[in-house]
Amino acid sequence: MTILQMQQEILRLKKQNDILILAHSYQGREVCEVADFTGDSYALACKAKTAVQSTVLMCGVRFMAEVVKILAPEKRVLLSDSGAGCPMAEQIDAEELAALKEKYPNALTVAYINTTAELKTLCDVCVTSSSAVKILKSVPEKEILFVPDINLGKYVAQKLPEKQFYFMHGGCPTHVRATGADVARARREHPEALLLAHPECRPEVWEQADYVGSTSGIMNFARESSAKEFIIATENSIAEHLQFECPEKRFYPLSKDFVCHNMKLTTLFHVYDCCTGGGEEIVLDEPTRSAAKKCLDRMIELGG
Ligand code: 13P
Ligand code: SF4
User: Fold this and answer.
1) Whose CA is nearest to atom 5 of ligand 2?
2) Cα(5) to centroid(ligand 2), Å
3) Angle, nearest 10°, between helix axes 3-16 and 268-275?
4) What is the C-alpha separation between 203 and 171, in angstroms, rounded?
5) Residue nearest to ligand 2 atom 8, measured at CA
6) Which is the closest atom of ligand 2 to the Cα of 149?
7) What is the mean pLDDT of residues 16-35?
């Protein structure tokens, strides 16, 4: 089969088998092209709640498929590749979080959505990169225990100086590869380009950015901007998608190492396989699911 033939077969099969295909924007183009919806983690979570299909296939990483199952338990939820986990989601377990909560008893416990379902059961509210500032600005608590991403946490903290933040030393192994030296080199090579950065980057990267936002935020900014050149400081699929969408503009990845190998595990064949009975079905026990749902419901309520 050619790529096109496989894509056509997937489009036929997903209709026949009542499957909604969700794809995070870090997926490759051939996967995004067969998806019903592509977006950042906040938008994917909201989409899960309104899906009408009986099966939802998540082309992304495990915590994203878990979020779908938590919010839409009546659906059959598939993860395209069992090995696709987010390493950051595994950086803190329930026992370690319990110890941190004891250390900061007055703090609101805030989980980045890149966490396991089990960890979410111990948190007060979940946030994503696109919703964190808005959500934490709206809560009455002055003290915030933010896990696991210290870079995103610091970005939010400098936007909300009235709050006291406590962090752990977690972070995305892909985003931390980019450094201030990469920014200096990219600026030298592309002096006219705007730097658009994800807040999972180190502060030395996002402090120099012309725009900081989620994957969808970066894409919307670049689409709407009158500028012609952009340095993209997040996973390299974003630069590729933008280059296809806006061929009159130029998009330069900040670093060739900006590749999330977990996101890239899903191939078009995995999608085809899931449409014909394959894939891993996400199963969560009911007490975990319903306890984890509370902080996601609060995220959607406060995030709008
Ligand atoms: P977004 O919410 O911006 O899509 O980020 C998810 C993620 O895993 C970034 O590395
Ligand atoms: Fe996780 Fe980083 Fe990959 Fe996002 S880019 S899924 S945070 S490892």
Assistant:
1) 260
2) 30
3) 30
4) 12
5) 86
6) 7
7) 97
Token digits of residue 48: 């899960």
Tens of pLDDT, residue by residue over 126-170, are 999 999 999 999 999 999 999 999 999 999 999 999 999 999 999
Q: Cα(77)–Cα(55) distance, rounded to whole angstroms? A: 6
Helix (H, G, I), strand (E, B) or coil at 146: strand
Strands 280-281 and 76-79: antiparallel
84: left (phi over 0), alpha (psi -120 to 50) or beta: beta
Q: How would residue 28 be classed by pLDDT, with cut points 50, 70 and 90?
A: very high
DSSP-derived 3-state class of residue 132: helix
Q: For a pLDDT cut of 90, what percent of the chain falls above it?
A: 96
Q: Whose CA is nearest to atom 1 of ligand 2?
A: 86
The rounded percent of the chain whose pLDDT value lies above 70 is: 100
Answer whether 137's CB lies under 8 Å from 160's CB. yes
Ligand 2 mean position to 12 CA, how many Å?
Answer: 31
CA distances in angstroms from 214 to 121, 124, 274, listed in the order given: 24, 22, 28
Provide the residue count of the chain: 304
**Contact (Cβ atoms closer than 8 angstroms) between residue 102 and residue 157:** no
Pocket of ligand 2 (CB under 6 A): 61, 86-88, 114, 172-175, 200, 235, 260, 262-263
Q: Could you tell me if the CB of 131 is within 6 A of ligand 1?
A: no
Tens of pLDDT along 234-254? 999 999 999 999 999 999 999
> The tokens of 226 are what?
């009158």
From the CB of 149, is ligand 1 less than 6 Å away?
no
| Nearest ligand 2 atom to alpha carbon 60 | 6
What local confidence, expressed as pLDDT, does residue 59 receive? Answer: 97
Ligand nearest to the backbone CA of 238: 1
pTM of the model: 0.96
Q: Which residues pair with 112 in a beta bridge?
A: 127
Candidates 188, 195, 190, 172; CA nearest to 113 is 172
